[in-house]
Amino acid sequence: MDMPQLNTIEIAARASVTGGRDRSIGAILIDAGRLSVENAERIIREQKSKGLRFGDAAIQMGLLKQHDIDFALARQFDYPYLSASDDSLSHGLVAAYKPFAPMVEQLRALRSQLMVRWFSDDPARHALAIVSAEPGEGRSFIAANLAVVFSQLGERTLLIDADLRRPSIHQYFKLDPRAPGLSSVLSGRANGEAIIRIPSLVGLSVLPAGAVPPNPQELLARPQFARLVEQVSKSFDIVIIDTPSASSAADAAIAAARAQAALVVGRRDQTPIATIQSLAGNLAGAGTNVVGAVLNSF
How far apart (Å, rounded) are the C-alpha atoms in residues 243 and 139? Predict the structure, then answer.
């Protein structure tokens, strides 16, 4: 059950996004405001005269930095990420802001193992609940960043905040906590319009928790939640479900049962291995596929 440690209802899933694979690095940087047309022409002349690549010539001339070239290459290969100056999302989304950091490499390694261990073309294996025994173990951080790295892989990805007690996913994506969300859908006051596409991250959509209800466990136990997971699993390739801590109530077990699979998160040097094993055993005993465990130290 070991996995890499980390240091650190119709759905609009097919919304088209303009990619950059057919555009030059220079054109991408000009459009992004990182390069002037005049300097682009200077770089092209230097590139041709010395037989260099565009990026190498630009860096030698001091007109661009390596992070500018990385930014343009990411756009060319439909692998978007956000600059440090972009405050449209929380910087807790390290996969969106620091895609080349070692921590994000570990998230991608975790993504690869999940693709092997659980996710497949069968819609019944498109959903995964992220669970932890106690609050503060990094469960929402893992859920949000996993959703980002799956979307960067080109998978149509939906992140659902099923923590109807202390939701936090809206904070990562700077969404209005008063807007309709999962609680509205389960109570019949909203439908697929509660799902929000994140324009800056190709293929990623979020269903926030919405207003905190007085009866979270009862809402999640309703047949509507099972039907919702079934429906979105047909529209999205990957459905990541964040949950409340398992110690707070049975909500996490209910969400995991609906997803049919769970990834257990613990905090390194804090969560006892026995606690992780006990939680995994309880989930497995309830019929949930426990696909692995992650020790988070971020």
Answer: 8
- Chain position carrying tokens 């700077």: 174
DSSP annotation of 212 reads: P
pTM of the full structure: 0.80
- Tokens representing 195 are 């799902």
Query: Which amino acid would we find at residue 73?
Result: L
CATH class of this structure's domain 94-296: alpha beta
Tell me the per-residue pLDDT of 82-136, one tens digit each, with 9 for 90 and over.
878 788 899 999 999 998 899 999 999 999 999 999 999 999 999 999 999 999 9
Contacts of 195 (CB under 8 A, 6+ apart): 11, 12, 158, 205, 206, 207, 232
How far CA 155 is from CA of 35, 265, 282, in Å, comes to: 31, 23, 30
Q: Exposure of 87 by Cβ count < 10 A (0-12 exposed, 13-18 middle, 19+ buried)?
A: exposed
Strand order in the sheet with 157-161: 196-197, 204-207, 157-161, 238-242, 127-132, 261-267, 289-296
Look at residue 33 in the predicted model and tell me its pLDDT. Answer: 84
